[in-house]
UniProtKB/TrEMBL annotation, chain A:
Enzyme nomenclature, EC number: 2.5.1.60
Pfam family, one: Prenyltrans
Catalytic activity: geranylgeranyl diphosphate + L-cysteinyl-[protein] = S-geranylgeranyl-L-cysteinyl-[protein] + diphosphate
Keyword rRNA-binding: no
Stated name of the protein: Geranylgeranyl transferase type-2 subunit beta
A Gene Ontology term for the protein's cellular component: Rab-protein geranylgeranyltransferase complex
Function statement: Catalyzes the transfer of a geranylgeranyl moiety from geranylgeranyl diphosphate to both cysteines of Rab proteins with the C-terminal sequence -XXCC, -XCXC and -CCXX, such as RAB1A, RAB3A, RAB5A and RAB7A.
Originating organism: Solea senegalensis (Senegalese sole)
Subunit structure: Heterotrimer composed of RABGGTA, RABGGTB and CHM; within this trimer, RABGGTA and RABGGTB form the catalytic component B, while CHM (component A) mediates peptide substrate binding. The Rab GGTase dimer (RGGT) interacts with CHM (component A) prior to Rab protein binding; the association is stabilized by geranylgeranyl pyrophosphate (GGpp). The CHM:RGGT:Rab complex is destabilized by GGpp. Interaction of RABGGTB with prenylated PTP4A2 precludes its association with RABGGTA and inhibits enzyme activity. Interacts with CHODL.
TrEMBL record, chain B:
Pfam families: LRR_9, PPTA, RabGGT_insert
Chemical reaction(s) catalysed: geranylgeranyl diphosphate + L-cysteinyl-[protein] = S-geranylgeranyl-L-cysteinyl-[protein] + diphosphate
Disordered: annotated segments: 198-218
Any single GO BP term: prenylation
Family: Belongs to the protein prenyltransferase subunit alpha family.
Stated role: Catalyzes the transfer of a geranyl-geranyl moiety from geranyl-geranyl pyrophosphate to cysteines occuring in specific C-terminal amino acid sequences.
Protein name: Geranylgeranyl transferase type-2 subunit alpha
Catalytic EC class: transferase
Domain of life: Eukaryota
EC annotation from Swiss-Prot or TrEMBL: 2.5.1.60
GO molecular function, one term: zinc ion binding
Length: 331, 583
């Protein structure tokens, strides 16, 4: 009973050149169909959606095409009394959208548009006794939220406001036999969580705690014959996992362990030549989420038409320089 | 949007779809606004439950609506009696079941189920466990369900061995199940811990135990169980040699216990009036309560890591107060205390001696090879035979090849060196996407072998030329090395970690591709640096050398930097101590 290897085949006529103009047009047009059913359905994650769109525009040096004032007004309206930010107006605040909002404001050098002290209070208030972070007041615990918390506070220069030692202890308790990390202690390793946890350890100056050789092996084994990377063993490749695995490898200083040319070919094949944008896999529907991670992946692979991206915060390096944030990377 | 195939459609189809979507949008927006209005007005009634149910059925990631439902349910708790509340929450669980059937990977649904289960007046954990069984029988990799299962197991005190049997069953029906192997890796150390402490009989409730973690609990398994486990994995990879799950698990089984935290080496130099201390893992010596006592007197010293890039580092240095040990006719006794652990290391500097050290070598500590028990040796030998048989049948199976290398290293790393190198060569060919990984791993193993050879020979010379090295590692083990020969390899840099070679006098690294010398930083004894035929291209690349006070001889022949006009005078200015410059 041989296991079938799950992978995709890249057709010979798949896109192989980067069509940046089309991607910029796709993102610029995306926000204009606000009355669309599908668009409305995704309002529960709007703030992150805006972060994906604006970041990819900035990486392509097209940020001025977006409506800055409208976006900053929207963000202001999404800050709640407790300090947290919601995905849309009328929705409840959550760490996921608090980070996205702060990231967007950093792109615009406008962090002061919101009440920063209250954001800090909100983030701090979600830390639990064991060092973990709840995503909101309803208590879901996940290492993703540990990342959101330290990323938000480090962008605001307020990391000292939380209990860093305890937070580190919790994240390390989620380390597994394969060197990877899961959502909670005992949870299976997953590329998305590994990205969050290595990013977290980078921001807290604790990367020496990672077993980089073991984790790097697991990560480089995510690359399939198509060149794409999956998020866990025996899963299909996906542009967003390509980013999470690639960024994690970069953070732990092992990016050379995958075949970069093959990954580039896979990412390029996920472009839609008609509409612009990237899909999860060749031939699927595009969306802003995969468009950001496609472009960011190409940037980490060294494409010079794109601005250098920071592997920890998935933001343009020049933005982080302005914000004075320089996360660690293992050498 | 994951896995949604793009389908071409005609203009008419598009128009029909557009109309349909418009209709759906109207219904959706009306329901959403009705929900938000009710919530704004503080209404927590049955109708609100129905409205949110309608919306969440099609859009389970709308987190705010789950929050609203929780507010309503909590309110109902205060106005209903226990039986009614029980019924209410049971209805919630069946609603969630239908949501999970449609969206088995929705974070919001699973979190809400955790929340409801915790609030149910009379929870039925057995039913929750069978729900997990059912869900995992549909998709045995659904990590949300696995996490929920772990919660149920913890809340209801399911014994560890019962869960281990569950993984036996899943693995028995399908070896290719990484999630089950992972679960096993968390259960085995609980049931059969390496340390002699009593095994814990069940996964305790949260209030009595912290989660098992690398900090609170060893991840290793006792030898007896380990040997049984090898057999199970062997069955798996013989059934399907290309399934990676079992191979990953096997590598974990072959792994080593984590090192104890200790001071592994103390070195004193009389001339430099300096102490270097090596630890078994990277530490921040400024915060771990390090105390240096010289001849019974605690000294106030400032610890610094070997390179400003490191806040955590295995090697730390301090300067002793001027004149304390400089008189060669005096004998001194030094102790470094790690007060937090607590542990310490003594080192005596005798009359007439310029330097002294005290250490536990890599060989003593069994870092790279262990003394195996007779039983383990014979089991590993037979494992190696089995893998060799498998490899004969499947000569290009990379998993098998890599495992053979690991078994050889566990059994006799020096004796199998030649075979190991051959297998790495094959690995690079059959799995070319990861050739850089195999090169780095091979470099690591060759460095380990060379360290062992150096220690058996009781010398302070580390020579590893012409071995296709692509990376340097274990440099903390080379603290006492005075001569290093890295010539004719494929190194691109001397990384900051290289500054841990605090005793280094001569560096030979000819014929590599070195372009970065960051690690040649404040090496107090370094006199000779031979870098013929490398890729050093600018004077700035050589800047770190200016921090090495004793540098006399520098060979840069065959580097691009020698083509720069006036290079001689520029280098004379940058490196005034160098008297013998070869360009």
């Amino acid at each position: 009973m041989g296991t079938q290897v799950k992978d995709v085949i890249i057709k010979p006529d798949a896109p192989s050149l980067l069509i940046l103009d089309k991607h910029a047009d796709y993102i610029a047009a995306y926000g204009s169909k606000k009355d669309d059913y599908e668009y409305t359905l995704s309002e529960f994650l709007r703030m992150s959606g805006i972060y994906w769109g604006l970041t990819v525009m900035d990486l392509m040096d097209q940020l001025p095409r977006m409506n800055r004032d409208e976006i900053i007004d929207f963000i202001k309206a999404c800050q709640h009394e407790c300090g947290g930010m919601s995905a849309s107006i009328g929705h409840d605040p959550h760490l996921l959208y608090t980070l996205s909002a702060v990231q967007i404001l950093c792109l615009y050098d406008s962090v002061d548009a919101i009440d920063v002290d209250k954001v800090v209070e909100y983030v701090k208030g979600l830390q639990q006794e064991d060092g973990s972070f709840a995503g909101d007041k309803w208590g879901e615990i996940d290492t993703r939220f540990s990342f959101c918390a330290v990323a938000t506070l480090s962008l605001l220069g307020k990391m000292d406001k939380m209990n860093v030692d305890k937070a580190v202890e919790f994240v390390l308790s989620c380390m597994n036999f394969d060197g990877g990390f899961g959502c909670r202690p005992g949870s299976e390793s997953h590329a998305g969580q590994i990205y969050c946890c290595t990013g977290f350890l980078s921001l807290t100056g604790q990367l020496h705690q990672v077993n980089a050789d073991l984790l790097g092996w697991w990560l480089c084994e995510r690359q399939l014959s198509s060149g794409g990377l999956n998020g866990r063993p025996e899963k299909l490749p996906d542009v967003c996992y390509s980013w999470w695995v690639l960024a994690s490898l970069k953070i732990i200083g092992r990016i050379d362990w995958i075949d970069k040319a093959k990954l580039r070919r896979f990412i390029l094949a996920c472009q839609d030549e008609e509409t612009g944008g990237f899909a999860d896999r060749p031939g699927d529907m595009v969306d802003p989420f995969h468009t950001l991670f496609g472009i960011a992946g190409l940037s980490l692979l060294g494409d010079e038409q794109i601005k250098p991206v920071n592997p920890v915060l998935c933001m343009p390096e020049d933005v982080l320089q302005r914000a004075g944030v320089q996360p660690d990377i293992l050498s | 949007m994951h896995g949604r195939l793009k389908i071409k459609s005609t203009a008419q189809q598009e128009e029909e779809k557009r109309k349909e979507r418009e209709k759906k949008l109207k219904i959706y927006v009306a329901a959403r606004d009705a929900c938000f209005d009710k919530r704004k007005n503080g209404i927590l009634d049955d109708e609100a439950l129905q409205l949110t149910q309608q919306l969440l059925s099609s859009n389970p990631d709308f987190a705010t609506l789950w929050n609203y439902r929780r507010e309503i349910l909590m309110h109902q708790e205060t106005v209903k009696d226990e039986d009614e509340v029980q019924k209410l929450y049971e209805a919630e669980l069946s609603f969630l079941e239908s949501c999970l059937k449609a969206n088995p990977k929705s974070y919001g649904c699973w979190h809400h189920r955790c929340w409801v289960s915790a609030r149910l007046p009379r929870p039925n954990w057995a039913r929750e466990l069978s729900l997990c069984d059912l869900c995992l029988s549909v998709d045995d990799r659904n990590f949300h369900c696995w996490d929920y299962r772990r919660l149920v197991v913890k809340m209801s005190g399911v014994p560890v061995d019962q869960e281990l049997e569950f993984t036996d069953r899943l693995i028995g029906s399908n070896f290719s199940n990484y999630s089950s192997w992972h679960y096993r890796s968390t259960l085995l150390p609980l049931l059969h811990p390496e340390s002699p402490e009593a095994p814990s009989p069940c996964l305790k409730a949260p209030e009595t135990s912290p989660p098992p973690s690398p900090q609170t609990q060893s991840h290793r398994v006792c030898e007896e169980q380990l040997l049984k486990e090898y057999e199970l994995v062997q069955n798996a990879f013989f059934t399907d040699p290309n399934d990676q799950s079992a191979w990953f698990y096997y590598r974990w089984l072959l792994g080593r216990a984590e090192r104890d935290e200790m001071i592994s080496c103390v070195f004193i130099s009389r001339e430099d009036e300096r102490v270097a201390v090596a630890f078994s893992r990277p530490v921040n010596a400024q915060t771990i309560g390090l105390l240096l006592v010289l001849d019974g007197q605690p000294q106030r010293v400032e610890w610094r890591s070997v390179h400003p890039r490191f806040k955590f580092c295995p090697v730390w240095i301090c300067d002793l107060p001027h004149g304390t040990i400089s008189d060669i006719t005096n004998e001194h006794n030094l102790t470094v205390h790690w007060t937090e652990k607590p542990t310490h290391k003594d080192c005596a500097l005798y009359t007439g001696r310029a330097e002294s050290y005290c250490r536990d070598s890599a060989t003593d500590q069994e870092l790279f090879r262990s003394e195996l028990s007779v039983e383990k040796t014979s089991v590993l030998q037979s494992e190696l035979q089995t893998c060799n048989q498998l490899q004969e049948m499947e000569p290009l199976n990379k998993w098998c090849l890599l495992t053979i290398i690991l078994l050889m290293r566990a059994l006799d790393p020096l004796g199998y060196e030649k075979e190991t190198l051959n297998h790495f060569k094959t690995l690079r060919e059959v799995d070319s996407m990861r050739s850089a990984y195999y090169s780095d791993l091979c470099s690591k193993f060759m460095i380990e072998n060379t360290i062992m050879k150096m220690e058996y020979a009781e010398v302070r010379v580390f020579s590893i030329s012409d071995k296709n090295l692509t990376t340097l590692c274990h440099l903390d083990q080379l603290l006492l090395v005075t001569h290093i020969n890295l010539s004719s390899n494929q190194l691109q840099r001397l990384p900051p970690q290289f500054a841990m070679l605090q005793c280094l006098e001569v560096l030979e690294a000819n014929n590599n591709s070195i372009e970065n010398l960051e690690g040649l930083y404040r090496l107090p004894k370094l006199e000779e640096v031979l870098l013929k035929n490398n890729k050093i291209s600018t004077v700035a690349d050589l800047k770190p050398l200016a921090s090495c006070p004793k540098l006399k001889r520098l060979d840069l022949c065959g580097n691009p930097v020698t083509q720069i006009t006036n290079i001689g005078s520029e280098l004379a200015e940058l490196l005034p101590s160098v008297t013998d410059l070869l360009l």
